[in-house]
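During the first year of the project, the team set up a workflow for recording each protein of interest as an amino acid sequence followed immediately by a discrete structure-token representation. This format lets reviewers and collaborators read both layers of information side by side without switching files. As required by the reporting guidelines, we include two representative entries from the current panel. The first entry is reproduced here exactly as it appears in our internal archive.
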Amino acid sequence: METTSLNRLIEDFNELPFEDREYAVELIRKQLIEAKRERIVGRAKEAVSNLKKGKTKKGSGEDLLKDLEND
């Protein structure tokens, strides 16, 4: 989002009555939670796909650390 658009959004928000601002904040908070859930679902699907394609590695935590050190 452009800075000017964000500034305008904030200005418009501050012109709202207090109760409407409270409602808007709660609505935005819920939308962010849902967006985070959707991102998690997307990452989970990607992980399952990578597992099925054999693109993942298996091992202990110690194996993981050793692998990371070798990169």
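The second entry, processed by the same pipeline in the following quarter, appears below.
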Amino acid sequence: MELSDRITIEPGKMGGRPCIRGLRITVGTIMGLLAAKRTREEILALYPYLEDEDIKAALHYATWLASDQELPIKRA
């Protein structure tokens, strides 16, 4: 799976936030639903035009973003 196949970023759509396949569903929306303990089945029922691979791509993208950030560390 390549992220570019599932995750799109368009400046004029959803404020340039990463979306699923050019749809107006952001990676953040998917991650928020998962954080709220919604199951994949519930998410797919809420958004019938999504596919299970879209949820996997959102998780992969969010993991990639989280691992790519530099965080300042304060010394005690």
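For the second entry, the following points were noted during internal review. The beta strands are 7-8, 19-20. The helical segments are 3-6, 27-35, 40-46, 52-67. Both points are flagged for discussion at the upcoming steering committee meeting.
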